[in-house]
Specification:
single chain; mainly alpha; 51% helix; binds heme C
Length: 112
């Protein structure tokens, strides 16, 4: 009985991770991020643009003094510059969706 519970717990956690990846992929596509960025960790490769692969965040983002999430949110809203320039696209979606994208990218970046 114990092993069945363990297997079920495993199946549940892995399927949640896949579910999150699918949700993040949809958000990135719906908000046109995938027009400029590839996200190889999600298998999202729809552009030849030179914008960075969002599977790995740069030190400007991860090392931001107020934390990577604050950086991503402010950068996407063009309230913050990276190396003196603002992001190409101004965020037009909801705060909740931007929150999910920021959390998703940070989680993706934390994987080996
Ligand atoms: C018109 C093209 C374009 C679109 C659309 C776009 N980006 Fe970008 N983005 C860029 C470019 C170019 C850079 C690199 C700028 C730099 O490093 O200073 C960048 C940088 C970033 C960075 C910083 C990456 C790092 O590690 O430094 C993040 C995060 C990011 N974009 C997220 C997004 C998200 C989320 C979306 C969708 C809402 C999006 N971008 C849509 C062109 C785009």
């Amino acid at each position: 009985m114990k092993s069945i519970t363990l297997i079920m717990a495993f199946v549940l956690t892995t399927s949640t991770a896949f579910g999150d990846d699918a949700a993040l992929t949809t958000l990135l596509k719906d908000n046109k991020c995938s027009k400029c960025h590839v996200v190889k960790a999600l298998g999202l490769i729809e552009t030849k643009s030179k914008a960075p692969d969002l599977s790995h965040l740069s030190k400007e983002v991860t090392g931001y003094k107020k934390g990577p999430k604050k950086f991503i949110v402010a950068f996407l809203k063009k309230k913050l510059s990276k190396k003196g320039s603002k992001h190409k696209l101004a965020w037009k979606g909801s705060d909740a969706d931007l929150d999910l994208i920021a959390d998703g990218l940070i989680e993706l970046n934390s994987r080996k």
